[in-house]
């Protein structure tokens, strides 16, 4: 039995990370509206608080007070379960991501990671594959053929790109010889993996955008196509949960990209947590920038790209990396 | 309730899960649910393998489970394709109605 | 101490497995099976097989069951009528009777013996020191390389077979 202080530290870490995640999800929505507004030469939210900084709170309050409509023939149990599942899987993948190096507080050394599992990378992929349930069950439970089709399309897209996502990080695992995210960050002490694995990085980025259903891969849930997809019958808090789950997923894949390719919390001079947050927001900005710039893929183009282009390239990258590592 | 869980506990649990799978195959008439019961049986056996792997200090059990999972994935894909082809012909997945070859 | 983790996981595995064979709605059955897979994954973690536990979630709960759900949703199979409505009592009684016999036999066989298997060399300490995944990787490419290659051929056959069978 570990000593009680261990549990206190663990609970404190969980509370801090969870709180920061929720705050980040709220403010990424604000950031997105401001950045997209800037790219489109307009101001974005400006009224609620200085420069619209309180806009996320206004959005949450509005969504909470909206009428919660449940379709009459919907499968109630699954209708309530699906957004919860999406939200839970979006948040728990943060349990294995290292935010920084060690820190000394109150006389004890605390590692800035909630738990360092020796299969951390596979854990994140497992949680990502569970996120598909939230979408496909939401589409089914709405008892609406458009929701079902949107949900199935979205799930098929996520499954297809999950494959290339997994393959693109095999090169990273070969170079760091471990599946633990803490070990992967430590293995980047001499060179970040983006230098050693540029193609893997590119594939990871593209697949991450497709995994989180962000533009230009957001056909299954775009408002102008297919009646907003799997969440068409959802209102009020359940819709807010899907919404939050999407942004939380975006933050999670950005965190994974920084951990796997950009050296995690590594950086000169300034405290490690600062570097981690900086790189995280770099990726989030990139996602928002891509959304504002690129047009949407058609569904067949999307699937063709995932299977016929990304998968062979990811496999080739794996083989070349394996050859290099074996010959070293 | 102290001490480690003995091997027999895992084996009895595995046997129980296997038995529930067999009941599912025998009683249910929906082909998809029969298939799910078969997956349950495969998983019960996986549990046995991993339990033995731990208690006999050998990695063979876990390797075999790895292969069982890969083969189960292949088998599920093919089985579901067969069920879909069947549904296209007969509009039903009830195994009682798939009796065209009955003499 | 281990019992505190084993007992709830075992109970959850048994309960969800029973729900799979009892529930009428195929979607609820599929979701119960996912619950069973989670319970089994927890049991694998308890047995210190971390790689197998995570692969169980990724492959079974995350891919195979999603495939099942796709097929159930697209084929829109309805609810099955309960057995008493189908006047199936003889088959039901025979099935449950035979399985009870099977379970009794297994329980007697398991309970009466102590395992006399040959003890190998991969003790828990060695596995935890080297790393569970690293050991499995090493063994897959040395002792078990032929089954590994054959498995890849099996998966290829499955892919080709599915394309042929599901084509109109």
Q: What topology, given as strand order, has the largest sheet of chain A?
A: 1-2
Structural class of chain B: mainly alpha
Percent of residues in helices of chain A: 55-70%
Global Rg of chain A: 20 Å
State which percent range the strand residues of chain B make up.
under 5%
Tell me the number of strands of chain B.
0
Distance N terminus to C terminus of chain A? 44 Å
Number of domains of chain A: 1
CATH first level of the domain at 30-94 in chain B: Mainly Alpha
* Average of per-residue pLDDT values of chain B: 90
CATH fold description of the domain at 30-94 in chain B: Helix Hairpins
User: Which CATH architecture of the domain at 30-94 in chain B?
Assistant: Orthogonal Bundle
Query: Which class do the helix and strand fractions of chain A yield?
Result: mainly alpha
| N- and C-termini, Cα separation of chain B | 59 Å
Q: What is the subunit organization of this protein?
A: heterotrimer
Q: Characterize the main sheet of chain B.
A: none
Specify the overall morphology of chain B: elongated
- H/I helix tally of chain A: 12
Topology:
The complex is a heterotrimer of chains A (328), B (103) and C (168).
Chain A (H helix, E strand, L loop, with lengths): L3 H36 L15 H11 L10 H17 L9 E4 L2 E4 L8 H22 L3 H24 L1 H7 L4 H6 L6 H4 L1 H14 L24 H26 L10 H22 L5 H29 L1
Antiparallel strand pairs in A: 1-2
Helix pairs in contact in A: 1-10, 1-11, 2-10, 3-4, 3-10, 4-5, 5-9, 5-12, 6-12, 9-10, 9-12, 10-11
Chain B lengths: L6 H21 L3 H25 L4 H31 L13
Helix pairs in contact in B: 1-2, 2-3
Chain C lengths: L1 H21 L3 H21 L3 H26 L13 H23 L12 H7 L1 H10 L3 H21 L3
Helix pairs in contact in C: 1-2, 2-3
């Amino acid at each position: 039995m570990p000593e009680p202080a261990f549990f206190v530290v663990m609970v404190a870490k969980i509370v801090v990370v969870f709180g920061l995640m929720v705050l980040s999800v709220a403010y990424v929505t604000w950031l997105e509206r401001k950045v997209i507004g800037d790219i489109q030469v307009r101001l974005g939210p400006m009224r609620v608080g200085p420069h619209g900084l309180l806009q996320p709170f206004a959005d949450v309050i509005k969504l909470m007070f909206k009428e919660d409509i449940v379709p009459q023939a919907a499968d109630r149990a699954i209708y309530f379960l699906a957004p919860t599942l999406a939200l839970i899987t979006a948040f728990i993948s943060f349990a294995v991501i290292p935010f920084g190096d060690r820190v000394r507080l109150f006389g004890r050394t605390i590692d800035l990671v909630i738990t360092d599992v020796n299969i951390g990378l596979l854990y994140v992929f497992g949680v990502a594959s569970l996120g598909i349930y939230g979408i496909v069950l939401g589409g089914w439970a709405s008892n609406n053929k458009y929701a079902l089709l949107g949900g199935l399309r979205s799930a098929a897209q996520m499954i297809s790109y999950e494959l290339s996502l997994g393959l693109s990080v095999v090169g990273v695992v070969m170079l760091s010889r471990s599946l633990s995210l803490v070990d992967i960050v430590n293995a980047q002490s001499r060179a970040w993996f983006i230098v050693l694995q540029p193609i893997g990085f590119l594939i990871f980025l593209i697949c991450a955008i497709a995994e989180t259903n962000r533009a230009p891969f957001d056909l299954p849930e775009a408002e102008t196509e297919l009646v907003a997809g799997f969440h068409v019958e959802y209102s009020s808090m359940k819709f807010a949960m899907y919404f939050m789950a999407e942004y939380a997923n975006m933050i999670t894949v950005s965190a994974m990209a920084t951990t796997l390719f950009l050296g995690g919390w590594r950086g000169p001079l300034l405290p490690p947590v600062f570097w981690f947050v900086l790189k995280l927001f770099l990726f989030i900005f990139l996602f928002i920038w891509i959304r504002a710039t690129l047009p949407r893929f058609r569904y067949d183009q999307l699937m063709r790209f995932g299977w016929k282009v990304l998968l062979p390239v990811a496999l080739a990258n794996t083989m070349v990396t394996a050859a290099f590592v074996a010959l070293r | 309730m102290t001490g480690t869980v003995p091997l027999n506990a895992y084996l009895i649990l595995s046997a129980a899960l296997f038995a529930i799978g067999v009941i599912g195959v025998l009683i249910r008439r929906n082909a998809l649910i029969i298939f799910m019961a078969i997956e349950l049986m495969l998983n019960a056996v996986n549990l046995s393998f991993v339990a033995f792997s731990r208690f006999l200090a050998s990695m063979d059990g876990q390797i075999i489970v790895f292969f069982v999972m890969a083969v189960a994935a292949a088998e599920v894909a093919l089985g579901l394709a067969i069920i879909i082809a069947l549904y296209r012909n007969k509009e039903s997945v009830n195994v009682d109605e798939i009796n065209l070859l009955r003499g | 101490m281990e019992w505190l983790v084993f007992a709830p996981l075992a109970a959850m595995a048994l309960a969800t497995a029973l729900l799979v064979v009892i529930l009428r709605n195929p979607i609820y059955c599929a979701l119960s099976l996912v619950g069973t897979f989670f319970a089994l994954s927890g049991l694998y973690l308890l047995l210190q097989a971390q790689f197998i536990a995570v692969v169980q979630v990724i492959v079974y709960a995350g891919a195979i069951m999603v495939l099942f759900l796709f097929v159930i949703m697209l084929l829109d199979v309805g609810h099955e009528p309960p057995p008493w409505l189908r006047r199936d009592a003889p088959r039901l009684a025979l099935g449950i009777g035979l399985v009870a016999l099977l379970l009794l036999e297994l329980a007697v066989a398991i309970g009466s013996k102590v395992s006399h298997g040959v003890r190998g060399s991969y003790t828990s300490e060695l596995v935890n020191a080297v790393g569970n995944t690293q050991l499995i990787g090493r063994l897959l490419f040395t002792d078990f390389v032929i089954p590994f290659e054959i498995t890849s051929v099996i998966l290829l056959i499955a892919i080709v077979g599915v394309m042929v069978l599901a084509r109109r």
